[in-house]
Design goal:
This protein is mainly α and 184 residues long. The chain folds into two domains: 1-59, no CATH class; 61-184, no CATH class. The chain is 71% helix and 4% strand. It has a two-stranded antiparallel sheet with strand order 1-2. The longest helix is centred in the middle third of the chain and has 35 residues, at 61-95.
């Protein structure tokens, strides 16, 4: 009976360990192994150990340009979400006096997150599209002659989408920290 009680935790963790190895570690090992194989056009699996694949990736200008663009996007989104998240959190923590209104306004901020990311991103099309609300407003105000093309399917729209997606995640921890600050 004592042996059985000592082995019980191992038997309990065995299925999870098996799933972890089969669906996480094994695919990673296979990707690393295949990354050393040689390839010809679309035929990938030619078993031969070569470092040429890594040499191609790390000596390519495309790789460096991709990293530079990624870092630029990350910094722009981070700065914008920090400014927006801090502003909203500051307003909720210090200008809204009652807890009830803080909860209500905080829930209003979370309403867009009750839908999927895909639906939220598709919802930008009627606003930013060629015949969208933003272009119609710009034309009505006389600021542009014809619809602006860079509002949708551009770097601007990618940054806008990410800011929309991540502002709440920036706001929540800032708000939680600010709400604990003594007001006296």
């Amino acid at each position: 009976m004592q042996i059985r009680s000592r082995l019980a935790p191992y038997f309990q963790v065995a299925p999870l360990t098996l799933v972890f190895f089969v669906f996480f570690l094994l695919p990673i090992v296979l990707v690393v192994v295949v990354s050393f194989f040689d390839y010809q056009s679309y035929q990938i699996l030619i078993p031969a150990f070569t470092l040429q694949n890594y040499s191609d990736v790390f000596s390519s200008n495309v790789t460096y340009r991709t990293y530079a663009i990624t870092i630029r996007f990350c910094l722009m989104v981070w700065i914008l979400t920090l400014v927006l998240g801090f502003t909203i959190a500051y307003f909720l923590a210090f200008h809204v006096r009652t807890l009830t209104w803080q909860i209500v306004l905080f829930l209003v901020c979370t309403i867009p997150f009750w839908t999927s990311n895909v639906i939220r991103m598709i919802a930008w099309i009627p606003l930013l599209g060629r015949n969208g609300l933003a272009n119609a407003a710009l034309q009505q105000l006389g600021l542009v002659e014809e619809p602006v093309e860079w509002l949708l399917y551009s770097e601007f729209s990618v940054i806008l989408g990410y800011v929309h997606l991540y502002t709440l995640f920036m706001m929540v921890p800032i708000f939680n920290s600010m709400i604990r600050i003594d007001r006296s």
